[in-house]
Design a protein that fits this description.
By secondary structure, this protein is α/β, with parallel strands linked by helices. The protein is built from 17 helices and 15 strands.
Length: 439
């Protein structure tokens, strides 16, 4: 969604400075359509994801690429057609699937046996199984820290629009805890974030630098590790991504809203008293002057330069080498590996293997995860559930109910607006708000 006309109808003028022609996060505010660079990067990203999807399906289903792509181009299939084209193995109802599981567990004669039953195991019961009972509570300790959500200063949390936020103070505290725990031999940071505040990202990066002096830090990238998500990853001892992880987007965007027309429509006049020329440079009461624009552009450009410099240092490359693949462009993990932005492809298992090697442990050494944040206590869990129910009740009785009935694209637009609304006017951001949706 491109929101400039909507803002303009409300008398709002987003004053946006993008560093990097591919940095599209600010485009949704300042443009009415997609730029050529934005379309180029998005198209390349989708093609990489598409190729990975086709290759995996063909390998697992034993299909030729040309034949499978022909199926994709023909459209949607009903069950019988999917079976005929070898896209599925069998057509059965759920009860038959249960019988199939019984056969796999108890043997061929188990289907009609009443003594052979299958129960369900809830997440709560599963979580209570002692790690020692399944062989996970032994060996050297590896800290696993989850860094999930939009990166913000201070504490994180969960919001109705934004989802989960990654608070810089919270992650820094967890890194400190893992660093001070002498039993922890290495740290794995699991990153799933589109970025956020440049300052908050840098706070986390600085804490990782401290941890690295005492024990190795490995980053394991999940769905997205873009912009600030890459900022907090770039200095680690090794980076592991999935082939389709959205990564990179080394770029910067700054926004200051001019709401002078909005105030005029509302009949509000503002008087300003200040001691110095730039005292109100971040005001939304008027447009920026040319001199203020120059200051704002320099500030934004300086942060981009810092971003690229730190990536270059962390990845052992020159500033120019990183700048060529930066400029706000997103890459898949597979492409990021080719450009040296990540070290390996894989999941937590690969990250664990690298962590063991960096920590001087043997390949077959027993290890156990120490997960951060720690599981909540009984009282904290109860209070959190009560809080979530209160939020749900308030939402159900307010004008927010209409959001549930919106198309997914409209919900996405509201979420992106909420992301920008989370930051202070003029706060420089390293964020990739437009991640393509793979349906």
């Amino acid at each position: 969604p491109f929101l400039k006309r909507m803002f303009n109808k409300l008398g709002m003028e987003p004053q946006v400075e993008n560093i990097g022609e591919y940095k599209s996060a600010g485009d949704i505010l300042k443009r009415e359509s997609m730029s050529d660079a934005h379309r180029e990067a998005t198209d390349a990203l989708l093609r990489d994801i598409y190729n990975e999807f086709v290759e995996v399906v063909c390998e697992r289903r034993g299909l030729e690429r040309a034949a499978f792509e022909s199926l994709l181009n023909r459209g949607v299939y009903d069950s019988e057609e999917a079976l005929a084209e070898k896209l599925v193995d069998e057509l059965e109802y759920e009860t038959a699937v249960v019988d199939l599981i019984k056969q796999r567990v108890y043997g061929a004669e188990a289907t009609n046996s009443r003594s052979r039953t299958l129960g369900t195991l809830t997440v709560q019961r599963y979580a209570k199984v002692p790690a020692e009972e399944v062989g996970l509570g032994q060996g050297s300790k590896i800290a696993l820290i989850y860094g999930v959500g939009t990166i913000v200063s201070g504490d994180g949390g969960v919001g109705p629009f934004l989802g989960r936020n990654m608070g810089s103070d919270e992650i820094a505290d967890l890194l400190q805890t893992a660093r001070k725990n002498t039993a922890v031999k290495a740290v794995v940071l699991r990153v799933d974030s589109p970025g956020g505040s440049a300052l908050a990202s840098d706070v986390i990066w600085a804490e990782i630098e401290k941890v690295k002096k005492e024990k190795p830090v490995i980053v394991s990238m999940s769905d997205v590790a873009a912009s600030g998500g890459y900022w907090i990853s770039m200095g680690s001892d090794a980076i592991v991504a999935q082939p389709t992880t959205i990564t990179g987007s080394i770029g910067v965007v700054g926004t200051i809203f001019d709401l002078s027309e909005t105030y005029d429509k509302l009949g509000i006049n503002w008087a300003t008293v200040k001691t110095n020329p730039y005292a109100d440079i971040l005001t939304d009461k008027r447009p920026m002057t040319d001199e203020e624009w120059n200051v704002f552009k320099k500030q934004t450009a300086d942060i981009y330069h810092t971003f690229v410099k730190k990536v270059a240092e962390g990845r052992g490359k020159t500033w120019d080498e990183i700048d060529r693949i930066a400029r706000g462009r997103v890459w898949t993990g597979k492409r990021a590996l080719e450009y040296g932005l990540v070290d390996s492809l894989g999941g937590l298992d690969v990250a664990l293997a690298i962590a063991k090697q960096k920590a001087g442990l043997s390949e077959d050494a027993a290890t156990q995860w120490v997960v951060y944040p720690q599981p909540k206590g009984f009282l904290e869990s109860v209070m959190e559930k009560i809080g979530a129910r209160v939020v749900k009740m308030v939402s159900a009785r307010s004008d927010l109910t209409w959001i549930r009935h919106l198309p997914s694209e409209a919900k996405s637009a509201i979420q992106q607006l909420a992301i920008f609304g989370r930051f202070r006017n003029g706060e420089i951001q390293v964020i990739e708000s437009q991640v393509p949706v793979v349906r």
